[in-house]
Design brief:
- The chain has 2 helices and 4 strands; from the N terminus they run βαββαβ.
- A 4-stranded mixed beta sheet has the order 2-1-3-4, covered by helices on one side.
- The protein has about 130 residues and is of the alpha/beta class.
- It starts with a strand and ends in an 18-residue tail after the last strand.
- It is about 30% helix and about 25% strand.
- α1 runs antiparallel to α2.
- It has a single domain, classed as Macrophage Migration Inhibitory Factor (2-Layer Sandwich).
């Protein structure tokens, strides 16, 4: 059920894009208990002036032009511990697979209700049982 939006530099190589995509998907499966084959991602490349971040850093984290913004919309209900483990797994994996600085892996999670999804046909597949 997650929808992942990945925003990164237009200069990112296909290998980096693939590594980011796979890292997020692997963490969803292994950490967040997302069902296999539930891989919906939108990957968008941007010019340098379209990725805006505080060049002086924020909360003790410094960023570079290689910053990657990842937003995951998924069903609510995961614990803080699972979310922390997810953040760590994604950053570690992207760093290991693609050499991206962990500081440049920026993640936002959006929790929604199960009925907030339609996977096609104009249907609410996760409609509440009545």
């Amino acid at each position: 059920m997650p929808l992942v939006r990945i925003n990164l530099s237009k200069d990112a190589s296909p290998e980096v894009v693939r590594a980011v995509s796979e890292s997020v998907y692997d963490a969803m499966i292994n950490i967040a208990n997302v069902p296999a084959n539930d891989k919906f991602q939108v990957i968008t490349r941007h010019a340098s002036d379209e990725l805006v971040y505080p060049e002086e850093g924020y909360l003790g984290v410094s960023y570079s032009p290689g910053i990657i913004f990842i937003q995951v919309t998924w069903n609510a209900g995961r614990t803080v511990e699972i979310k922390k483990a997810f953040y760590r797994a994604v950053a570690d994996s992207i760093h290991t697979r693609a050499g991206v600085r962990k500081e440049d892996v920026w993640i936002s999670l959006v929790d929604v209700a199960r009925e907030d999804w339609s996977f096609g046909n104009g249907e609410m597949q996760y409609a509440p049982k009545v």
